UniProtKB/TrEMBL annotation:
InterPro entries: AAA_dom (IPR025669), DNA_Partitioning_ATPase (IPR050678), P-loop_NTPase (IPR027417)
PANTHER family, per the entry: P-LOOP CONTAINING NUCLEOSIDE TRIPHOSPHATE HYDROLASE, PARA FAMILY PROTEIN CT_582
Signal peptide residue numbers: none
A Gene Ontology molecular function term of the record: hydrolase activity
Keyword Hydrolase: yes
UniProt cross-references to Pfam families, sorted A to Z: AAA_31
EC id: 3.6.-.-
Protein name as catalogued: Soj-like protein
Enzyme class, broadest EC rank: hydrolase
Residue intervals of the AAA domain: 3-172
Record's keyword terms, sorted: Hydrolase
Length: 248
């Protein structure tokens, strides 16, 4: 089975879904057979690739994953759509340990055909995020370059450490990604220094800049490479794809 990378942060608005979508599209462009799994009840990763959310989530119904994935406009990129069903959201968010293990096993059993799988986690520390992390090989945590975004950093890291300590867990800390980076702001430069000073090589060299094109692209159902291929955001995600693929 290929690498399973979870994109997770309990705080919303930090670029989590933007990162999941553009990493998936970028790696598919590089020739990797790639799947994006949308576990966020908002289903933004699904719609950002021009795909409609499902009426029922296949992980709730335990239906075959291969029958539920949808193609995208990118060769080599498929998506397991999210569901906005209140029943499904509640079912996935309140799973107990046994159910979580079954969901993780069901998901893992269907991923062998992919080189890379990216999982867009919900913005929470709940059971669904824990289930995703239990399935993953690596976790990437986007972190917005402002102090409020750093407040929950310790909680997220404690959750990651908890999952990593479980028996048979494969999860490793893939890295912290600095997002909405504006090098002209002293606050950004200070956050950058503090995070790199504390976490060292765990922080990706690539930073994702503040770029209005990244905010606009999802409304057109396109990754940044199609919507604004010459933008700073597109260049950043190309560099991030290279950095991640270079670690394989």
């Amino acid at each position: 089975m290929g690498r399973v990378l979870c994109i997770a942060n309990q705080k919303g608005g930090v670029g989590k879904t933007t990162t999941a979508v553009n990493l998936s599209a970028g790696c598919a462009r590089a020739g990797m057979k790639t799947l994006l799994v949308d576990l966020d009840p908002q289903c933004n990763a699904t719609s950002a690739l021009g795909v409609e959310p499902t009426n029922r989530h296949p992980l709730v119904e335990q239906s075959p994953i291969r029958e539920s994935v949808k193609p995208t406009a990118y060769a080599g990129l498929e998506v397991l759509p999210g569901s906005r069903s209140f029943h499904d959201v509640d079912a996935l968010a309140t799973v107990d340990d046994n159910q979580s293990r079954r969901v993780a096993e069901h998901l893992s059993a269907s991923l062998a055909v992919y080189d890379l799988v990216f999982v867009d986690c919900p913005p929470s520390l709940g059971a669904l995020t824990q289930t995703a992390l239990a399935t993953g090989d690596e976790v990437i945590m986007p972190l917005e370059c402002e102090y409020f975004a750093m407040e929950g950093l310790t909680q997220m890291i404690e959750l990651i450490k908890s999952v990593m300590s479980r028996r048979n867990a494969r999860l490793q800390f893939g890295g912290i990604l600095l997002t909405k980076h504006d090098h002209t702001l002293e606050l950004t430069r200070e956050v950058d220094r503090e995070v790199r000073g504390f976490f060292g090589d765990v922080v990706f060299q690539t930073v994702v800049p503040r770029d209005v094109a990244l905010a606009e692209a999802p409304s057109h159902g396109q990754p940044i490479f199609d919507y604004a291929p010459r933008s700073r955001g597109a260049r950043a995600y190309i560099e991030l794809c290279q950095e991640i693929l270079g670690r394989d």
